[in-house]
Amino acid sequence: MDHGERLAKLEAEVDYIRETLVEIKGEQVRLRDHIDRGFAELRTEMAKNTRWMIGIAVTYGTAILGMMAKMAGMY
Question: Which residues are listed as membrane-spanning (predicted)?
């Protein structure tokens, strides 16, 4: 093999590697977008669950205070 053939083969390999890297970068961007959407959905669900938990805690707290007041003869 002479240098011209080796150089041509090397250039072909470099072009293939460059194309592969471009594809990987594109997949990385798509994956990051998918993960970001997933985290946004997760944050929405967490906010909803937090509101429910606060509501439940207030409800049970009020019920317990009412039972304590009833047992103490306040009403």
Answer: 52-72
Query: Are the C-beta atoms of 50 and 44 separated by less than 8 Å?
Result: no
Record the tokens describing residue 46, joined without a space.
Answer: 């967490």
Q: Which domain holds residue 14?
A: 1-75
* Distance in angstroms (rounded) separating the CA atoms of residues 40 and 9: 47
Q: How many domains does the chain have?
A: 1
Eight-class DSSP state of 10: H
What pTM value is reported for the model? 0.60
Q: Three-class SS of residue 68?
A: helix
| C-alpha to C-alpha distance for 53 and 60, rounded to whole angstroms | 10
